[in-house]
C-alpha cells in the first residue's frame, strides 16, 4: 500500500516537479498540495497524509510554523523541510519539531529519490508498529485479556471514526483439501491478503487485523457496500483457498461496550468451531491441555502476574518430584497450553515449532532436574513475551517508552538528566537508570548523545553550517567534545562525514 504525500510549496514549477518525481515512485502517491502554510495545515487535517514535504519560506504561515503546529497537535505524520538556504537559521527549530530530513533547492532526481526511499523505510516501520499495537488493543478488549480506562482511551484514539467487521473462518481444513496444521500460517496469510485487497478495491480506508487463529477484524473508516463486500469476500476465499468464511458487522469503535457485547453474542451463537487436525498421540491428553490453558488464562485475565509466576514455580516443582515419565507428561501439557495461548495472543516473535518438535525435545530430556530446568526456561520465556505484549497493548505502563518520548522532546535542554526524566514518569532515578540500560542496551547519557549525533548527521549532510554551529544546534556545548563523541560513535570525524556525504 502506497504512502500518501502532501506537498506544501509556494513555487508552482518546483511543486509540479516534485509531483512528477513522486508519481514515478512505487511507494508514494500525492494526495494533495498547498501554496501556503495555512492551506497546508488545513489539508493536513483533512487528508491526514503519511508524509508532508514543506517549504521553509512560504506566505501566511512558514514551514517552521507549520512544523510547530503539527508537533504541538501530536499529529503522527512524517515531514521533510524544503529550503534553498544552506545557512539554516531555522535548523534548530526544525530539528526540535521532528523534521525527518531536509531537501535542499536546487535538488536532483537522485536527491528526491533518496529522501523518499528513507521516508518509505520509516513509514513501513511505523505501520508495522501500529499494526501490532492495534492487534494488541483488539485482543485486550474483545477477548477481555486486559481492561482499564487508559487502555480503552488508547483504543478510542487508535480506532477513531472506524467501524469494525468480524471475519470468522468456519472451517480451516475442508474436505477435498489436503491442508494440515503446519499450513495454518500460510492459510492465514492467504486469507489476510484476499480480504485486504477486496476492502481496498471498494475504496474503503480499511485495515485488516488478526484477532486470533480463526478470526480477523476489518477496521474501516469509510462505508463499505456491505452486501457486496461480504459476498465478494466469501466467494473469493472459497474460490482461491476452498475455505469457508462468514462476516458480521460489530459496530462503531466509539461504543466499546457494544463491540464487546456483539463479539460475545456472536461467539455464543457459533455452532461449528474450526476443525483443527489433532496429533494422534495428543488426543488422549487434549482435555488435560484445555484445563491447563483455562487455568493459565484465568490468571492472565486477572492481571496477577506474580500469581502466574508462582503457578509456574509450583508446576515445575511437581515435575521435578514426579517419576520422569509422569513429569514429562505434566510438562508437555503445560508447554502445549502455553503455545496455544501464545498463538491466540500473538506472542510469537516468529513462527512456532510444530507440536511434534516439542514432544521430541521433551522426550530427549534425560532426568528430572534437567526437565525442571527446561520447563523453568520455557515459562520464563513465556512471561517475558507476555509482559512485552501487555506493555505494547498499553503504552502508558511502558516506562521506557515514556522515558524515550520525554528525552526526544527535551534532549536539547541543557539540564536534562536521568533524575528529571524519572521525576516526570514517576520512577526512582536509580531504578530507571538500571531499567533503561537493560531495555535499550545503552546508558542514559549514551542514548541522549546518540540522538544528538543523529540530528547532527542530518545537518552535516544538508547544510553548510560550521561544525561549531551544528554542535550548538544539537545541544553540545563544546565542539571538541562533540567531534570526539561523533568520531567514537561513527568511526569518522564530522568533517570527513560531510565530505563523504
- Distance N to C terminus: 31 Å
Largest sheet features: 5 strands, parallel
Number of helical elements: 21
**Strand order in space, largest sheet:** 2-1-3-4-5
For the residues shown, what is the average pLDDT?
80
| Rg (CA only) | 27 Å
Q: What is the helical fraction, as a range of percent?
A: 55-70%
InterPro entries: CheY-like_superfamily, Homeodomain-like_sf, HptR, HTH_AraC, HTH_AraC-typ_CS, Sig_transdc_resp-reg_receiver, Tscrpt_reg_AraC-type_HTH
Modified residues (4-aspartylphosphate): 55
Keywords: Cytoplasm, DNA-binding, Phosphoprotein, Transcription, Transcription regulation, Two-component regulatory system
Domain HTH araC/xylS-type: 401-500
Write the layout of secondary structure elements.
Elements: E1 3-8, H1 12-23, E2 28-34, H2 37-47, E3 51-55, H3 63-72, E4 78-83, H4 91-96, E5 101-104, H5 109-142, H6 149-158, E6 163-171, H7 184-201, E7 206-212, E8 215-220, H8 226-241, E9 244-252, H9 256-269, H10 286-302, H11 305-321, H12 324-345, H13 355-363, H14 368-393, H15 399-410, H16 418-424, H17 429-440, H18 444-462, H19 467-473, H20 479-490, H21 494-500
Helix pairs in contact: 2-3, 5-6, 5-14, 7-8, 10-11, 10-12, 11-12, 11-14, 12-13, 12-14, 16-17
Amino acid at each position: 500500500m502506497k504512502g500518501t504525500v502532501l506537498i506544501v510549496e509556494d513555487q508552482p514549477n518546483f511543486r509540479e516537479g516534485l509531483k512528477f518525481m513522486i508519481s514515478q515512485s512505487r511507494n508514494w502517491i500525492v494526495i494533495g498540495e498547498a501554496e501556503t502554510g495555512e492551506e497546508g495545515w488545513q489539508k493536513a487535517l483533512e487528508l491526514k497524509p503519511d508524509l508532508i514535504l514543506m517549504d521553509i519560506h512560504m506566505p501566511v504561515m512558514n514551514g517552521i510554523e507549520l512544523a510547530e503546529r503539527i508537533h504541538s497537535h501530536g499529529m503522527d505524520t512524517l515531514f521533510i523541510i524544503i529550503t534553498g538556504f544552506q545557512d539554516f537559521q531555522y535548523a534548530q527549530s526544525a530539528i526540535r519539531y521532528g523534521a525527518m530530513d531536509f531537501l535542499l533547492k536546487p535538488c536532483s532526481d537522485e536527491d528526491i529519490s533518496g529522501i523518499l526511499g528513507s521516508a518509505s523505510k520509516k513509514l513501513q516501520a511505523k505501520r508495522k508498529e501500529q499494526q501490532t499495537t492495534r492487534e494488541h488493543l483488539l485482543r485486550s478488549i474483545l477477548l477481555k485479556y486486559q481492561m482499564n480506562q487508559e487502555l480503552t482511551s488508547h483504543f478510542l484514539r487508535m480506532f477513531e471514526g472506524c467501524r469494525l467487521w468480524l471475519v470468522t473462518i468456519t472451517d480451516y481444513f475442508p474436505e477435498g483439501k489436503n491442508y494440515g496444521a503446519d499450513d495454518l500460517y500460510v492459510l492465514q496469510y492467504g486469507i489476510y491478503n484476499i480480504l485486504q485487497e477486496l476492502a481496498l478495491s471498494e475504496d474503503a480506508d480499511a485495515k485488516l487485523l488478526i484477532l486470533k487463529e480463526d478470526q480477523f477484524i476489518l477496521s474501516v473508516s469509510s462505508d463499505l457496500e456491505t452486501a457486496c463486500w461480504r459476498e465478494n469476500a466469501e466467494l473469493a476465499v472459497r474460490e482461491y483457498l476452498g475455505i469457508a468464511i462468514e462476516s458480521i458487522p460489530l459496530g462503531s469503535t466509539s461504543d466499546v461496550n457494544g463491540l464487546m457485547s456483539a463479539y460475545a453474542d456472536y461467539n455464543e451463537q457459533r455452532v461449528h468451531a474450526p476443525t483443527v487436525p489433532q496429533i494422534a498421540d495428543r488426543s488422549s491428553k487434549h482435555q488435560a491441555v484445555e484445563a491447563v490453558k483455562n487455568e493459565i488464562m484465568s490468571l492472565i485475565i486477572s492481571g496477577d502476574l506474580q500469581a502466574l509466576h508462582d503457578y509456574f514455580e509450583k508446576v515445575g516443582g511437581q515435575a521435578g518430584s514426579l517419576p520422569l515419565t509422569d513429569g514429562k507428561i505434566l510438562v508437555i501439557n503445560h508447554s502445549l497450553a502455553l503455545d496455544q495461548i501464545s498463538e491466540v495472543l500473538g506472542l510469537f516473535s516468529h513462527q512456532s515449532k510444530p507440536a511434534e518438535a516439542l514432544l521430541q525435545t521433551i522426550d530427549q530430556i534425560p532426568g528430572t532436574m534437567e526437565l525442571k530446568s527446561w520447563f523453568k526456561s520455557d515459562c520464563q520465556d513465556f512471561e517475558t513475551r507476555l509482559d512485552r505484549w501487555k506493555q505494547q497493548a498499553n503504552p502508558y505502563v511502558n516506562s521506557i517508552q515514556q522515558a524515550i518520548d520525554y528525552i526526544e522532546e527535551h534532549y536539547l535542554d541543557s539540564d536534562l538528566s536521568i533524575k528529571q526524566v524519572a521525576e516526570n514518569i514517576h520512577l526512582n532515578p536509580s531504578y530507571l537508570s538500571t531499567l533503561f540500560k537493560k531495555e535499550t542496551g545503552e546508558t542514559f547519557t549514551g542514548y541522549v548523545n546518540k540522538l544528538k549525533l543523529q540530528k547532527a548527521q542530518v545537518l552535516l549532510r544538508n547544510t553548510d553550517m560550521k561544525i561549531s554551529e551544528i554542535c550548538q544546534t544539537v545541544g553540545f556545548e563544546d565542539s571538541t567534545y562533540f567531534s570526539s563523541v561523533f568520531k567514537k560513535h561513527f568511526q569518522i570525524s564530522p568533517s570527513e562525514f560531510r565530505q563523504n556525504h
